[in-house]
Amino acid sequence: MAGILAWAADVVGGAGASDDEADDARDAASAAMTPEQRLRAAELDARAASMRRAIQDLRLRVPPPHVAQRLPHLHAHSLASSAALALQLNAHSSTKEQAQQREITLQEENAAYEKALSDCRWKIQERQMETDQLQSDLKIDSASIGLTMKDECAERGGRRNTMGLKVQAGGWEERNLREMEVAEHNLKAQLEDALKEQEATQHKVSTTASETAENALLEAESLINLKSKDLEEKKRVLELLDNKVQTLEKEWSVVEEESLKNPTPEKVDSGPGNLNPAAVKLDSVPANQNPAAAELDSVLASLNPAMVEAQAEILITDVHAKEKELERLNHLHRNVCSSANEIRAPRSRFSRGLLSGPEDYCDAKAGRKLYQPGLRTEGQKRLMILRSTIVLYVLLLHIVVFIKISV
C-alpha cells in the first residue's frame, strides 16, 4: 500500500519533478510492491504508454491553431501582394513627381517660346520701319531729281532762245545751236532713263520689302500656330496625368482603408515567435531576382510623356486586380477561421469525453509543457482535474485489486 501511495504521489506531483527523480521514485515504489502488484503496475504502464502514443497521434492530426502555419502558401501570397501594392504606391508617387517636373519644364519652354515670339515681332516692326524709310527716301530723291532736271531744261531752253538770236548773226552760232539741241536730247534721254531706273528700283524695293514682310509674317504665324498647338497638347496631357494621379490616389486610399478593416496575416503575426519561413524567404530574395523589383525598374525606365497615360491605365487595372485578390484572401481567411472553430469543437468534446473511462490517462510531461507559474488558464485547470481523477481511479483500481487478493 505504501508503494501505491508513493506512485500516486509521484504521478500527482510530476509537474515539478524531473525524469530521474520520477524513475527513482518508481523504482522505490516497485521495490515495496508484491509481484502481483508489479505485474499490475507494468500492465498499467503499458496501457498508459499506448494512450500516450494515441494522444500524440491525435495531436499530430489536429492542424495548428494559426492560419499562417496551416496555409503558408496563402500567407506568402498575401505578403507578396502587400509588397506589390507598396511598390505600386512608390511608382505612383514617382509618376506624380515626374508629372510635376514635366509641368515645370513646360512652363519654362512656354516662357522661352513667348520670348522668341516677341523677338520675331520686334524684328518685323524694324523691317517695316526700314521699308517705310526707304520708300520716303526714294520719293524725296525722285522729287529732287525731277526738279533739278526741270531747272536744267529751263536754263537750256533760255540759252537756246538767246543763242537763236545770235545764230542769225553768224553761221558759227548755228553749229553751237545744233550741239545744244543734241545735248538737250541727251539730257532728256538721261532724265527718262533715270526716272525709269528710279521707278524700277522703287518697285523692286517695295516688292522685296513686301515679300520679306509677308514671309516674316507667315513664318511668325506658322510658328505661333505650331507652338500654340504644342502647348494645347501638352496641357491636355498634363490634365490627363493629374486626373489619373488623383484617381490612383483615391483608389489607393480606398485599398488602404480596406486593408486596415481586413488585416492580412502579416499584421496579425506581430510576435517574434510567429515568423513564417515563406516571408523570410521572400525578404531574402535579392533585388535583381525579385519580379516585383524588376517590374518597378521597368516602369521607372519606361516613364515618358508619350507612355504615361498607358502606364497609368495599366496601374489602375493592377490596383483593381489587387483589390479583388485581397477580397478573395479575406474570404478565404474567414472560411479558414470558421473551419478552425468547427475543428476545435469536436476536439473540446473529445477532451471532455476523456474523463469518463479508464483509458483516459494523460502524460505528466505534456501537462508540464503547458504549465506557466503564476498564470492558470482553463486548459490547465481542466488538466489538473483530469490528472486528479485519473489518480483517484488508479487508486480505486489498486484498492479493488488488494481486496480481491486478500479475499
UniProtKB/TrEMBL annotation:
Q: Which residues form a coiled coil?
A: 177-204, 231-258
Q: Which UniProt keywords apply?
A: Coiled coil, Membrane, Transmembrane, Transmembrane helix
User: Which superkingdom, per the lineage?
Assistant: Eukaryota
Renumbered residue ranges of the record's region Disordered: 15-36, 259-278
Kindly list the residue ranges recorded as spanning the membrane.
385-405
Q: For bias kind Basic and acidic residues, which ranges apply? A: 259-269
Descriptive protein name: Golgin subfamily A member 5 isoform X1
Origin organism is Panicum miliaceum
